[in-house]
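Lab notebook, bench 4. Still working through the backlog of constructs that have no structural model yet. Next entry is a single chain of 495 residues. Request: give me the structure tokens for it.
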Amino acid sequence: MLKLAPLFGNGAVLCRNKEIRIFGEADKGRTITVTLGEATCVCVARGGRFVARLAPMAAATGLTLTVTDGVDTVTSTDIAIGEVYLAGGQSNMELELQNADEGQQLIATHNDPDLRYFNVPKKSVWNEDAMQHNAWSHWEKVVPGNARDMSAVAYFFARKLREKLNVPVGIIDCYWGGTSITCWMDEEALASTAEGQRYMDDYAAQSAGKTMEQWQKEEDAFQAEMTEWNGKVAQLKQENPAIEWPEINEKAGLCPWHPPVGPGSPYRPAGLAHTMVERVIPASLSGIIFYQGEEDSGKTTRYDVLMDSLIRTWRKYFMDEELPFLFVQLPVWIAGGETDPRNWPVLRHAQELTWRRNRHTGMACIIDCGEFDNIHPTDKRTVGERLFEQARTVVYGEEGECSPRAVSKHTEGSTLMVNLTAPVAVRGEGAPQHLEIAGEDGVYHAAEAAIQGATLRLSCAEVANPVSARYAHWNWCVVNLFGENGLPLAPFILA
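Model written out:
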């Protein structure tokens, strides 16, 4: 029994300038010989699995990969060596190019066979069906008519990489809409933090005693309800392309989310770490791009603890302690008719904490890209290209175009001075919006702001001695402060 993991099938992109790890299944004790181009290595299968390690290679195309155990031989052709990124997260990373702005035109015309992607099958249970779908998974090239099911964010990110580096670029798509960050790391990683353990305990309590059969029955009913609702929404949009969500909700009813809990749910903690992430471990990667957090915004105030754990865990999975991890800070959003709970800014701040204390990380600010009552904006070019700017800085040692950020504060009389990394100005008319200050009592009030280059002077009649400041601390608001490079001032809390 010799099986090469589908990740190394025809047309695969392997990571340049790092150890190349080739893996698959083989009988215990078998000696496995792997040849890639002119490079060869030998390893021994253990526990039904082998991992062969080849020395780093420069960018290349048109290589042949041969794996043999002396009895059986597997060959993959058209192998490329270049940049390889894993794209993870939930629905805004999952949103496919065919559903994004510009998507249909780009699908029809973009011809770049050295830009490729691999979709990890979305399976929440590892059974015969999942194994069959995994065996069918394969690399696709971005050529006319393809790329419909590629992550739009990852597409625009990878397109910029191709323009900059002129080497093959491969994207491993590994995401699932509606998932918590806790779905993507194993039980050991979750148990290493109190917050991760709490997620597991809460889910276990919710699904206690439920069998797989019971869950499947509930899941089938839920999917039928969702299909019916999606059909109503599609019909309303076809009849009136300009229809807005308040009217959709009135005519079609509210979305019947949430799905049932249970042992087969893709939303259970640790589940997808086993059924999806394990399919591509321990591939060599150039980096990770990640867009997630919406699902956890009302469930934790310590998302930073969970995200710190995810970064550590994935670096362990992919055997690279300095693996670049680039992620998207949540934008603004609120559902129509909802009173602002201000939980998204708490999660945004947690994301910033993670970025500040973890090396080789980058955070793309898209605070200006949210849409009222639409949690899935279709402009994914902006998101992908801002992630690319983070890659320029974190991965490639250049100075990428980044949002101005608040770095320090001090009080001068009744004015709080906030120092920024770069000058900002109001876009459009009016005064700076969504700035607040607080005194030692911690009660925030709207502040009047004067801009002096890279400094904000904040004051408020109700706050005689301001000591804290925050900006854009809302689920939904329209920001109007931008840097000279056109990027928005990042939200901040300086307490």
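Notes after review: The first strand starts at residue 2 and ends at 4. The first helix runs from residue 91 to 94. Flag for follow-up if needed.
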